[in-house]
Known about the structure:
Number of strands: 8
Mean pLDDT: 87
Number of helices: 10
Radius of gyration: 24 Å
Shape: elongated
Number of domains: 3
Distance between the termini: 55 Å
Low-confidence stretches: none
CATH topology of the largest domain: Transcription Regulator spoIIAA
CATH class of the largest domain: Alpha Beta
CATH architecture of the largest domain: 2-Layer Sandwich
Strand content: 15-25%
Order of helices and strands: EEEHEHEHEHHEEHHHHH
Amino acid sequence: MIIHNTEFISIDYIESKSLLLSKWKKANITADQFQQELLYCRDWCCGLRAKRTVLNQENFNFVIPDEMYPWIEKEINVPGYKTGVEDFVFVVSKDSNAQLSVMQSFDKVDSIYAPKFFLDHDQALDWITSNKKDKKKIEPIQPPVEFDPQIDIRLNGDNSKAIIKVEVPVESLPHSLHAIKQHMEKMDFMRKNWKKFSRLTKREEGVLRLLVKGLLHIEISEKLFISDKTVKTHRRNIVKKLESKHMVDLYRYADAFGLI
């Protein structure tokens, strides 16, 4: 039964399965319109007290802005969770940027949901309507057994930028996008913290590399042929220069700048 239908999305409800089916259309949508459609979805879901929901985003082409993620969690995900939505699955978008933003909308706010992603609508529907035993037989998208991406690199017209084209198996799409997302976050971290990191001496970089590997001060001193007191001095300087309060901060620097 179609309960909501606009130029942007259609919502179907299958009462016997307590299932809400939402399908985005190809029409371009603004941020305000997107939020309004999500509110419609939430109100229908909560009003009907649906236990399951499938969001078909094959044609979804809206890149969700970062600042909207907390709003989605608070105004859409949490109310749905409180009214009893148990299973929450997606059909992946053909637009990689849009799909990446959907994944980030859950990851970056530590969402109460960990949605599953499927390549097509029928597979998602089969999984969500199956009992717990049969669900194990219908796997969401998993990393491929064999992974051999085809990479093509070329320069743009004025040689100022490199264009990287990567062809991956379609079943690896969410995992590949997740890896790209992590790379983008590292590059952004490098850009914002380059000046701080550049203040480290080569010796301090060496100490940092060993610190994040879990070596004790005495082990670092033996490996670098310096005193334990010198190691402690280097560590204090590293923490001060990088303005780091916890070991996890040091790890982010080491990871982003290729020390591990």
